[in-house]
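Notes, Module 5: Reading structure tokens.

Key idea: the token line is not a picture. It is a compressed description, and you learn to read it the same way you learned to read a sequence, by spotting repeated patterns. We will look at two proteins. The first is printed below with its tokens.
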Amino acid sequence: MLAAAALAISACADHSTGLPTGVAKSGFDVPSAGFDALGYNDVAGIFNGIADGVDKVLDGTYRGDPTYANDRLVMKWNKAWPDGDGAWIMNEWNGQVPGGSGEVWHYKIVRTPAPCGAYGTPLPDGGYCIWDQYEVILSQGTVDNGHFWDAHANPTGFGVSR
């Protein structure tokens, strides 16, 4: 299920910067308040829209694939996300909508204190590495009426121990 997880998690970031798609890096663009037409609210650290719009291009696809374009996606990230240290993001993917993929996934991702390895590297606490210095601490979802846990790190929260 790591492949399915990778597809949904890729909504979280522009891989050239490691930032959530649409999030400004500190010291550059100043985000405006409120939600834009695609579902981004950069001030609040929320995206609430269809997967088709997460890349800021409405083309009937999610990264070139129409399978996930109509799925609903809610992403929430903290103010540290664009800069790294203490960063976290939560990703809730819902394909149980008309024209959706049928898949439902929930992810929690945190920045690690140091590089954690290649993409997909299992980590001792039960998570796995992505984007060089980020860990998926929770990845669970449903596909074709089956429930899958790809990661369940201990602890699974964004608390002090992270």
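Here is the second protein, with the sequence above and the tokens below, as before.
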Amino acid sequence: MSEQKKVASKEKFFSKKTALVNSKSKTTLEINTNLSPNELNELKNQIRNEKKQKLKKYNIRFLLFFVFVFILIFLFAMKMNII
């Protein structure tokens, strides 16, 4: 009984692996949805735009953080009479 379960689980595992290999050429959106190609492209563009907006937001935060750190280092250096 336990040998049959092991064989069945191995077969299940390898069938999932081959399904993953076969599906790598398609995107997950194409696999999981039944949208028309135009709707799919619109959805992809919307996702790209959202990612770009997030990146812009994080880039501004990143720059502000480093400006703040640079000012702190500069003030500390002035206080210690290095500059």
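Summary for the second protein:
- Residues 35-83 form one domain.
- The CA atoms of residues 15 and 21 lie 10 Å apart.
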